[in-house]
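Table 4 source record.
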Amino acid sequence: MVTLTTFNANNFFLRYKFSRRYPGDRSGVSQVEATEIATHGFLPDRPFQKYGRSRYIVWDEGRRQLAFAALKEPDGQLPDILCLQEVENIHAIRVLNKRYFGNYYQYSLLIDAYDPRNIDVGVLSTLPITRVRSHIDFVSANGQKPFANRDCLEFDVQTPDGKKLTIFNIHLKSKYTENGTAAELREAHLKRQIQAECLMDIIEEKFHGRQTTALYAVVGDFNDTPESPWLSSLKTPRLKNIISEYIDLDNRWTYYWRSRNRVSQIDHIMASRALAKRIEEKASTNSSYIPHIERSGLGYRKLNAVGKVLPAKPKFVHYEVDAATPPSSTATPDSYVDFRFPRYQPIMNNWRNNISDHCPVKIWL
C-alpha cells in the first residue's frame, strides 16, 4: 500500500544568514521571525554541507517540528510520497527530511522556477523516482509560459507492486493582486485558467489512448475552489476529485484565510479513473483508509478570555464572487463550520506556531 500527501508548507525557506527580512515579504513577518530567533535572514544557493548547520536555519523551526506530527496523522506514519508547495530549494526539503523526519525519505526532488519569492514545488519520497519532467518552459498555444513561476512538476514513482504512478505537483496562480481591481483579478484568474487548461493538454498528450488504465494524480494548491469557473477544464470524467468523492461537503475545506475569517477548499487531489479505483478499493476494505484532511496543526484567529478559539464558526466559501467572477445560480451557498476542533498545544499557546494556513491531505492507494 502507498500513501500520498499534498501540503502547502507556507513559505518554507532555508537561508544563509544575510539580512533580517526576506526580499518580497510585504507582511514583515519574516523580519519578526528573524528577530525571534535572534539571527539574520538568509542568502540562497550556497551548499548546505560546505558551510555547516550553524550558518543556516529552517525558517519557523518550531512550526516544522509540528508539521512532522501533523504529516503522520491519522495513521502514525509519514506518507510514502510527500508533495510540497511553497518550498524554497532542494536543500530545504533535504534538511527537513534529515533534521525532523529522521532521514525517512530516500528520494528528494525540486526544480527551481522563476518565482520572485523563490517558492517552488518539491517532493520527498520513499519510493524510487524513476522519471522527471519539468514544465517550466512549456509554451501554451498563445505563446505564454504558464508554469514559469511555479512548475507543473511531473514525475513517476515505482510502487511496491511494480506499477508506474505519475504525479503532477502543482501550485496554481493565486488571487492576490496589488490593488484588487477588476482588471488585475481577471488577469490572475485567466492565468490560473490557462494553467488548468494546459495541464489537461499535457495529460491528454501523455496518456492518449490509455486514459482508462493509466495511474496518475494531479495534486497541490490550486488556489481556487472546485466550483470555480476558472478551473472548469478540470471538471472532466478523466479526473476524480478525491476529496469530493469521500468527504462530506461541510468537511472538505483545507485552507483558513485568517484575516477574512473564512475557509475554503483550495488544496486538491485529482486522480485518474484507474487510480481512483485503487483508492476506492482501499477505502472500501478499511474505513481507516478514507482520504483524510488533517487540521490539528491549523491556527486560529484569537482566543477568548477562557481560552476558547474564536470565532466558533468561520464562513465556508464554496464559490467566490469578486469583481471578475460573477455570481452563479448553481453554486453551493456559503455555509459555516465548527472551528473549535482540537489543535496541538503549542498552537493553542500561540497561533503563530501553526504549521501552515493549509491542511495536509492524505490518501491511501
